[in-house]
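Subgroup meeting minutes
Present: P.N., E.W., G.H.
Scribe: E.W.

1. P.N. recapped why we're keeping a running log of single-chain structure predictions: easier to compare across weeks, and new members can see raw inputs and outputs side by side.
2. G.H. added today's entry (251 aa).
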Amino acid sequence: MRKLMYVFSFFAVFFSSCSNDDSSNPGFLLVKKATSENGSSTYRYDGNKLVQVTINASDYVVNTYNGNLITKTARYYADGTLLTETLYEYNANQKLISQKLLFHQNLGLDPTSQAFRRVFTYNPDNTLTYEEYSGTFQNQTTLTHTGKMWLDSEGQTLKTEDYRNGYLFSTEEFTYDTEKTIFENAAGMQKVPNSNSGFAKHNILTYKYYNSMGNLVNGFSNQMTFNAEGYPTEINMISLSGARNSVQFTY
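Output recorded in log:
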């Protein structure tokens, strides 16, 4: 269920890049298209706000903002049928405190589990803890799992431990570079988790996923290519099995 919780974020984050719409400043770039062997995504902006991502000229994602914070992300089929909504809430310091995923299409799920809500608590030791609940659109009260994230000085997720029924279920580890990301100048994008459920301000270099026995069962490494302005133009992902996938960005 954890992967379901964040599958929607994949399209909005991994295949997106954006910037302030300021042609007078060559340091601010606006991506036009992302292309991989699996298809392509195109992007539409309102200033520096990413308002729509169209996937393979078919399904599309719409972001809603309050100021510079993303408050809702909705995914639609090409015919306009609403598939999912992700709702975000923030504290006074503009840190994410709640993320709720609503499934408007069943997708084979238990009909009593239409929605999932993750609540974040920030701790003074540079960690955060979370609780995740499932239920209906109106109420998510069934605790499904808990977890803890260790953050670096920039608020990036270094490690996550996820627990089910009080027992360790999985561990994730992240490393990063110090370069600009494809969403460097996009309003609100660094405030929400990336496709691997972590918070990042720079590019992920390695990701590792361990099961409850401590065995490494999934992961990848990224090799980046940058343009003269320091923005990624290509990401080459190498999976744990050695499979490769690349994404090219056109600005």
